[in-house]
């Protein structure tokens, strides 16, 4: 089969339409997309409302289609876009149905543990286990495909609706289809009611498998009907979807977009990722545009990691001219103008940081601390979800970093990787089951005790190359293997008040670091939460300690005069090697400010003769392996 359009870089603009927008001026919207730099329009097509004259009795025609002479928004948009070389993808939302259909088909609907449906603004949530998703969805797709040459589909909010639009937790679905399917999946176990119920993690796996199976079926159906029309959805779809957004009341993780894109591209490097960036502050505050410096980070982080940029607005550009759309257009046009540079862009870091499963909330702080430490010390890295560890070829990496993960699902793969020449750096209790060391490569024989409460580690210190540091989070007492090199010994706890009694810290034999060879590889064990300590306390010693171990194990650090506020992302594309320099000096408390100008500076590129700077629009020589860089604004992209 010839190369499909979505396997090359593209740029999307989404108009998330209200029902009253059915009369929009198609040509006016397309004028905006062309000027913006987009070549793909994500248009609301069907599901909750059909913006075309559907003949399916379980679908609802948008009543405002009467404002159009044709009575068909989708038909008008597809024809006009086709004349101008713009692709149209269909946004579908099968998550809810109206009251009449809900009464006709209660078996389609979400039901909580008390037997109540989930109703919001007159619409009833449906369940992915039921026949609306499992059967009727395909009838809608077929009707659209039969009528219009659409270029792909996106299914919004395809989930089990545990949380409603008001962020009220509604629990686990107990519809008849879920009860029947779960009885087969987990014989003898009852459906949990919610997050605090026994068996919730089992149900989460069940729910993920239902959605993965449905995603696969939709993808296969589209491939049979129209191979050139991809599915945009989860990490098993033709195009992986990530929504970059803000939320009132949610702590800001400044690296969320970069992390999400990296985790998808590390799993399947050649599969496209779409970062749909929300131009407003939050769904309840959709009339207020996002801060431009904040929005810029969505697109910069996305394209640096190899994703396709997308901008998402409510309504039409005329009705909602958010201020952030100016910088969004600038960055979208940059991606358009350097289309060939971004073609076939894949990650090229040699260090892998594993992202913990969502249930391991404590490990998330450890992961984030290690993320910051590697970024600030200019060690390029990729991110991979923990559940994908057994699904990729780990030999792509020199070092795999495990952040306080506890028991691992595929320890054997890591042992094989290490034995054949790779390196593992494990922090916290990674690779520990009960008190047994699960990973053979780790230089410890057993865990003797675990101090994992605030009181248990309070006043506990380690003596390190960077001075004495406090233990924050957890510390495991482990028995070293005979061949282990130990260091960073613990100092015994002593009273911490009143001051007159604050003495008695004695050096113990309990190590805070163990190193060893394993086969042809290396392994490091830091049996304490050094990443969490860096995230929560911020002592630079934590960062230096853990990054030193990554470098000892074989990690690669970029030599540069750039400060820690510059993130270095490395990749390979059809144009050659690609380095993005992201200016993170604007990362501020719960916001992004305008980044400060950094430099001039330098970076070492020992294998290059010259380098092209795409933002600056210049070619520079590499002299003795080093290139002098001009001042850095928001970001720069180096091609060599």
TrEMBL record:
Pfam families: GHL6, Glyco_hydro_42M. SUPFAM superfamilies: (Trans)glycosidases. Residues 363-436 form the Beta-galactosidase trimerisation domain. InterPro entries: Beta_galactosidase_Trimer, Class_I_gatase-like, GH, GHL6. This is Family 10 glycosylhydrolase.
């Amino acid at each position: 089969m010839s190369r499909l359009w979505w396997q090359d870089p593209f740029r999307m603009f989404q108009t998330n339409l209200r029902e009253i927008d059915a009369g929009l001026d198609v040509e006016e919207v397309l004028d905006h997309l062309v000027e913006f730099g987009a070549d793909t329009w994500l248009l609301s097509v069907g599901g909750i409302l059909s913006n075309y004259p559907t003949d399916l009795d379980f679908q609802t025609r948008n009543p405002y289609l009467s404002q159009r002479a044709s009575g068909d928004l989708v038909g008008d948009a597809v024809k006009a876009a086709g004349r101008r070389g713009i692709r149209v993808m269909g946004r579908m939302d099968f998550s809810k149905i109206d009251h009449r259909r809900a009464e006709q088909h209660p078996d389609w609907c979400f039901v909580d543990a008390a037997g109540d449906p989930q109703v919001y603004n007159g619409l009833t949530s449906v369940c992915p286990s039921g026949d609306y998703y499992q059967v009727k969805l395909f009838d809608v797709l077929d009707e659209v495909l039969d009528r219009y040459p659409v270029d792909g589909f996106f299914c919004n909010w395809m989930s089990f609706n545990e949380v409603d639009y008001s962020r009220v937790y509604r629990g686990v679905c107990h519809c008849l289809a879920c009860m029947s399917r779960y009885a087969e999946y987990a014989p003898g176990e009852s459906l949990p009611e919610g997050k605090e119920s026994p068996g919730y993690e089992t149900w989460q796996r069940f729910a993920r498998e239902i959605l993965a199976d449905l995603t696969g079926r939709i993808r296969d159906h589209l491939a049979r009907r129209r191979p050139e029309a991809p599915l945009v959805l989860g990490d098993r779809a033709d195009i992986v979807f990530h929504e970059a957004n803000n939320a009132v009341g949610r702590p800001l993780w400044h690296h969320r977009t970069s992390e999400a894109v990296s985790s998808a591209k590390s799993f399947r490097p050649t599969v496209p990722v779409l970062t749909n960036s929300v131009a407003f502050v939050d769904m309840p505050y959709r009339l207020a545009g996002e801060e431009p410096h904040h929005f810029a980070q969505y697109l910069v982080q996305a394209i640096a990691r190899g994703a396709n940029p997308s901008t998402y607005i409510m309504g039409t550009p005329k009705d909602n001219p958010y201020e952030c759309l100016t910088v969004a257009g600038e960055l979208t046009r940059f991606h358009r103008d350097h289309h060939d540079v971004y073609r076939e862009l894949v990650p090229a870091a040699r260090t892998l940081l594993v992202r913990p499963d969502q249930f391991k909330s404590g490990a998330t702080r450890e992961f984030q601390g290690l993320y910051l430490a590697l970024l600030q010390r200019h060690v390029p890295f990729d991110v991979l979800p923990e559940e994908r560890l057994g699904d990729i070829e780990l030999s792509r990496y020199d070092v795999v970093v495990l952040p306080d993960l506890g028991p691992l699902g595929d320890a054997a793969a890591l042992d094989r990787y290490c034995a054949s020449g790779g390196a593992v750096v494990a922090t916290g209790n990674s690779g520990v089951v009960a008190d047994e060391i699960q990973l053979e490569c780790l230089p410890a024989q057993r865990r003797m005790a675990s101090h994992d409460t605030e009181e248990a580690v309070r006043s506990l210190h380690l003596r390190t190359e960077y001075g004495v540091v406090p233990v924050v989070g957890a510390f495991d007492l482990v028995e070293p293997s005979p061949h282990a090199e130990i260091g960073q010994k613990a100092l015994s706890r002593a009273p911490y008040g009143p001051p007159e009694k604050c003495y008695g810290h004695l050096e113990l034999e309990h190590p805070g670091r163990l190193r060893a060879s394993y086969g042809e590889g290396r392994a490091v064990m830091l049996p304490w939460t050094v990443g969490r300590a860096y995230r929560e306390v911020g002592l630079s010693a934590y960062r230096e300690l853990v990054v030193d171990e990554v470098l000892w194990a074989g990690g690669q650090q970029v030599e540069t005069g750039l400060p820690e506020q510059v993130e270095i992302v490395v990749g390979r594309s059809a144009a050659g090697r690609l380095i993005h320099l992201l200016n993170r000096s604007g990362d501020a408390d719960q916001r992004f400010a305008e980044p400060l100008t950094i430099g001039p500076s330098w970076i070492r590129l020992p294998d290059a003769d010259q380098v092209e700077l795409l933002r600056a629009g210049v070619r520079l020589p590499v002299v003795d392996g080093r290139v002098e860089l001009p001042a850095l604004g928001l970001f720069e992209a180096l091609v060599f």
